[in-house]
Write a structure and sequence with these properties.
Number of helices: 19
Helix content: 55-70%
Strand order of the largest sheet: 1-2
Radius of gyration: 23 Å
Order of helices and strands: HEEHHHHHHHHHEEHHHHHHHHH
Number of strands: 4
Strand content: under 5%
Low-confidence stretches: none
Length: 448
């Protein structure tokens, strides 16, 4: 086995882990004897059949409560990202095989499936109303009048609570919340978890302060075991190099939201078909598709051609920088930054057009503003109740009812951090619809 094969043998680890309190151990999947269903297919099934995945169908991608049935939500976005990610992964898998880098026990489609699983799971931790929801939660905890609720938390715990991060909550959903709750979660293979992580550090690490991160304190002990199984290079304390396949998941996500957000905008009449066509000219020959008369079909054909071109470009870029990606020495922002100019220009122009014509359109602004009041009302109810419980002070009837709504076990001996995290878990479990309805209902508006 050559050096590259040995590295990949570790990066594609099929180890799974269970938790029993502070004890973490590996666990064997019961049905791996079925040769038609690999360990990575089991990962895929566990994500697809999870409640968190189903809830994505009523969570915002770009357009909250969109009137059109054809616009994307988080579920359709995740499925499409997974499709693109699988294609890139299969391309890379074949290239690894041809280069003699793929370990003997693995096939090119294994690479595609690992990336596909990571893509399916990448948005599981998004709260209601997407990135606006994240901002609403962060701003609530950042309000000086709520500062006293954070007394008693460590600096690390405070940073986690005050910085709701969808990426970190996706990892928490996978490792703690679904299937075997607080006992290893979905117990996905180390390879699939590694491919999911774009930011392998915590909220207080210099790389995470004010930026994105992937690991809450609650999942850090388990991630140490996963990183060891994958032999991810350790860069410094509680910070690792990224898994090479995480770059493919990230690229698939970027491609989809850049191009498919514009396709939605055409559907909603926010931009014209000509604007969409002009954006793709650097990447594909749009004139060849001009004979397609139906606008929706022509739009879809252009989008499909552009994605196909981007898939090939990303796979090529991955293999060009293979050694750096495998050993943690890749220093660029992402794979798209080292793709050819046509791909970079097209995606950059697509994002610029979206920022100008979509993200600040009047049809979005009022709903996004309302998200702050909606999630703020829920936090106003739940956090004071948790805080009062931990202070040992008198629990008002309202506090008692709030704890019942949360499903709070008052007999359990949890830390303040654990119980605040359970509030964030509760909010993460809400769809746009249920969050809006809950906020309205607890306000008393519309009782009659």
């Amino acid at each position: 086995m050559n050096t590259a094969q040995l590295h990949w043998q570790h990066r594609l680890s099929t180890k799974r882990f269970r938790c029993n309190g502070e004890q973490i151990s590996s666990v064997t999947t019961q049905d791996t004897d079925d040769s038609s269903r690999t360990n990575f297919h089991i990962d895929y099934d566990r994500v697809v059949f999870s409640r968190a995945f189903r809830r994505l169908g009523r969570k915002t991608q770009v357009h909250p409560f969109a009137k059109s049935d054809h616009t994307h939500n988080r579920l359709t976005h995740s499925v499409e990202v997974a499709s693109v990610g699988r294609s890139i992964g299969n391309h890379v898998g074949n290239a690894l095989l041809q280069a003699g880098y793929l370990p003997n026990d693995y096939t090119p489609s294994n690479i595609g499936t690992v990336v596909q699983v990571a893509c399916l799971a990448h948005d599981l931790g998004n709260p209601p109303f997407g990135h606006t929801g994240e901002a609403a939660i962060r701003e609530w905890f950042g309000d000086p009048k709520h500062a006293h609720f954070l007394d008693g938390l460590t600096a690390d715990e405070r940073a986690d609570i005050c910085t709701y991060e969808g990426n970190a909550h996706s990892l928490r959903t996978v490792l703690s919340l679904e299937m075997y709750k607080n006992q290893g979660g979905m117990r996905l293979t180390a390879a699939s978890v590694g491919a999911l992580i774009k930011y392998p550090w915590g909220s207080r690490h210099p790389s995470g302060k004010g930026q994105k991160f992937n690991i809450y304190q609650s999942e850090l002990p388990l991630f140490h075991h996963i990183a060891d199984a994958l032999e991810l290079p350790t860069l410094d304390d509680n910070r690792w190099a990224r898994h090479p396949l995480s770059y493919l998941m990230e690229a698939a996500d970027d491609i989809c939201y850049a191009l498919l957000d514009l396709e939605d905008a055409v559907e909603l009449g926010l931009i014209g078909l000509d604007e969409f066509s002009d954006t793709l000219k650097a990447l594909i020959d749009v004139d060849k598709l001009a004979a397609i008369k139906h606008p929706d079909q022509r739009c879809g054909a252009m989008r499909g051609s552009a994605i196909g071109r981007a898939v090939e470009g990303v796979a090529t870029a991955f293999m060009t920088h293979h050694d750096e990606l495998l050993t943690g020495a890749f220093m660029h922002k992402d794979l798209l930054a080292v793709c050819d100019d046509a791909i970079q220009t097209t995606l950059k122009n697509a994002k610029t057009l979206a920022a100008a014509k979509i993200f600040r359109h009047d049809s979005k602004l009022t709903t996004e503003i309302a998200a702050f009041g909606c999630l703020g009302a829920i936090l106003d109810l739940l956090i004071p109740a948790i805080h009062a419980k931990h202070q040992g002070s008198y629990l008002s009837t309202k506090h008692e009812l709030a704890l019942d709504l949360l499903g709070f076990d008052q007999s359990a001996a949890h830390t303040l951090y654990d119980d605040y995290m359970s509030v964030l878990d509760f909010i993460c479990s809400l769809t746009d619809n249920t969050a809006a309805r809950l906020a309205r209902d607890i306000s008393g508006v519309g009782m009659i």
